[in-house]
Every structure is written in C-alpha cells, then in structure tokens.
What does this fold into?
Amino acid sequence: MTVSVVQFGGSNCDRDAVSALSHLGIDAERVWHEDGLPEDTTGVMLPGGFSYGDYLRAGAMAAQSPIMSDVYEAAERGVPVLGVCNGAQVGCESGLTDGAFTTNESARFQCENVFLRVENADTPWTAAYDDGEVIEVPIAHGEGRFEISGERYEALEAGEKVLFRYCDADGNVTDAANPNGSTGNVAGILGERASVAVLMPHPERATLDDVGGTDGAGILRGFD
It folds into this structure.
C-alpha cells in the first residue's frame, strides 16, 4: 500500500509523517497538492504545518485545493484518511468531518506533551489501544480549540465519533487537562466513516522510543 502524504504550500510536517510511517513499515510518499492523488494511493494523510500561512482561517485555503476533491472521493470509497493538526483543520474546513478548530483559549501557540484518553477503541485509528487507555503525545498549535454546536456535539457522542479527549495522566477529563479550551476536551473525531479521522495532537512525533516515545504509533497503524 502507499499512503499519500499531501503537501500544501506551508506544510512542514510532511517529511516527519513520511518518516514515521516508513519506520512503521508503511509505504508512504509526499504528494504535491497540485498533482492530484496517484492511482496507487491506498491511504491519505493530511499533515501538520501552516498551509498558506493560515491566512483567513487555519486550513481554509488548503481546503479549496483541487486535490481535496480527490481526497473526498477517496474517503467516500473507504480509503483511510487521517488529518493531523493543520491537516485536521483542513479536514474540518473541507467537510470531511464536523466541527471547526479555532484560536486557543489562551490565545497563544502551545507546544507541549499532553495526555489523551481513548474514547472509542473500535476504529482503525484506535484498534491498538483499549477503551479508556491513556496515551501521551505532543501538541503544537495556535488554533487547536475544537468547537461545535451543542446539538452536533451530542450527535458526535451518540455516534461514538469522539476518538480522543484531553485528560490528565490518570485519565480524568478535566478543565485543567484541556490545553486549548476544546468543547468536551475533544482532541480527535471521526468523519462519516470510521476510516476518516482528524486529531490535533501529533502521533507522528511519538513513534520512536528515543524521540517522544511510541504512544502515537498505534494511531498511524490505522493505515495498515
């Protein structure tokens, strides 16, 4: 299989993503957004960075790139699609998932390790974990606050589409453990299909024992 890691102008985590996937034995290559998805694409990753300088809103301009039509069609066919950080913002802006990511409650860029509680282990992206398991991965964002209306948030919960919530080391979901003010401490969600997911933390930065630990590897295994 070949995972296409889409590179937009301003992406800066595409090489990290390819390296992390390759380390896990998953074939991956960078694809420039103007070139469209290759025919042999069997997975798509929208990486982090600052596509188009985050002008207008983070991810808003990249969401209008023609390649996103290819990504949307691939998702409809069941091809696994994962958006990380800026890629999560692109995913929401393009309609792959519900909700939006807005300016952190602190109004500051935040780069730190956080704890996540696995809310639904019955998905490709969380199959390596148990329900309620706590993992540690880094964040690096200024617009990572997940926001959604009350009714739509309830629909996410009812449909078991919340993948991860920010928590403390013991798995307690608290305001203090919420780094950006996200609704319901939500850190990652599913799209209409379980094969489509977006999350704000960076699993590709947590796949090596000597560099950030390996807690994020299970998420990338969703491409296996």
